[in-house]
Specification:
Layout: H1 2-25, E1 38-39, E2 42-46, H2 52-59, H3 62-72, E3 76-77, E4 80-84, H4 88-97, E5 102-104, H5 108-114, E6 126-129, H6 137-140, E7 148-153
Parallel strand pairs: 1-3, 2-4, 2-5
Antiparallel strand pairs: 6-7
Helix pairs in contact: 1-3
Signal peptide: 1-23
Keywords: Signal
């Protein structure tokens, strides 16, 4: 429960920042065409990074928090709709089509596919690992334990193994 609260608070803080930037830009399709600070319907979509019901439950408080925080900045938000995409690409497709105003959790691959239709305002960070600095798989596997650090990083290490089938014996 404690972890879920931290995630909701972090997600909400990110949402407030993102929506503040969105509102400041004035390019939301849901905002009126004049310089009015009224947003009639703000649509937020999350990627299905875990059980959609868990995401829906964890993000339920966001609508009221965002309305309150944006009101402090002079914006009136009449309605906030939150949803969980059916797959990772659905959020980007919604942004591209204009049926989603704010998307959370787009992967780099999905962003690359839809980069002409959306602009990221925030980048997620995570706590790094003791052996994140090297791009060498040998370094990762020198029989030293991987430990968490307090350093914030914006990437994940990975290794792609290609041609594996030629080494697999039947």
């Amino acid at each position: 429960m404690k972890n879920t609260s931290k995630k909701v608070i972090g997600l909400t803080a990110g949402a407030v920042i993102a929506l503040s930037l969105l509102a400041a830009c004035g390019n939301s399709s849901s905002a009126s065409k004049s310089d009015s600070k009224t947003i009639s319907d703000l649509k937020i979509s999350f990627i299905p990074s875990k059980n959609p019901d868990d995401i829906t439950t964890a993000t339920k408080p966001i609508a009221n928090i965002l309305k309150s925080e944006l009101k402090k900045q002079g914006y009136t938000v009449k309605k906030i709709d939150t949803s969980v995409g059916t797959n990772y690409q659905a959020v980007s497709e919604g942004l591209d089509a204009g049926s989603v105003d704010v998307g959370y959790g787009m992967s780099a691959t999905t962003y690359a596919m839809y980069q002409d239709g959306s602009t990221p305002l925030l980048m997620a960070t995570r706590k790094g690992l003791s052996n994140d600095a090297s791009t060498s798989a040998k370094y990762w596997n020198e029989h030293k334990p991987t430990t968490k650090t307090d350093k914030e990083v914006t990437s994940y290490r990975s290794l792609i193994i290609a041609g594996i089938l030629q080494w697999v014996k039947n």
